[in-house]
Amino acid sequence: MIIEMSLNFQPGQIVSLEHGNKNLYAEVIQVVVSRQLCWVRPLLLVTHTEETPNITDLRDGSDLLWPIQLFRHALDTEVITLLSQILVKEPKSEPDLAAKQQLHQFIQKVWQAYQEGVGDMRK
After folding, report:
1. Which residues contact 107 (CB under 8 A, 6 or more apart)?
2. pLDDT tens-digit readout, 32-87
3. Phi, psi of 66 (to 5 degrees)
4. Cβ contacts of residue 25 below 8 Å, gap of 6+?
């Protein structure tokens, strides 16, 4: 059922990829239905803390082509406040290496968890 709902993603829609205390919010560019993949453009990575969330601007980062079933629809109420905090800032002219490194580490952890989950499903 999650896959069926995921196939309803539309270009321009904001989706979320969750792992641990972090959420990656990204804009859907295209859904590749035949391969069950979603091409997304990362917007921000949110690390949830006991106080205010730590928000990393990823707008100058690389696009991702990722298994569609790992994404969920992002609710407007969860995204509006977060996006408003980065949209008031101009994107940096220089790549933010720390932000790219955070995205890379997050993606590595999600991929490892996904692979372990797929392995469990095959047993």
Report:
1. 24, 64
2. 989 999 999 999 999 988 888 889 999 888 899 999 999 999 998 889 888 888 77
3. -135, 150
4. 14, 15, 16, 42, 43, 44, 45, 46, 74, 79, 82, 83
Report residue 43 as tokens: 């917007």
Distance CA 78, CA 92 (A): 24
H/E run at residue 57: strand 54-57
Round to whole Å and give the CA distance between 83 and 105: 22
For 51-104, give the DSSP string. Answer: SSPEEEE-TTS--EEEEGGG-EEPPHHHHHHHHHHHHTSPPPSS--HHHHHHHH
Give the predicted TM-score (pTM) of the model. 0.81
Q: Name the token pair of 118.
A: 């797929």
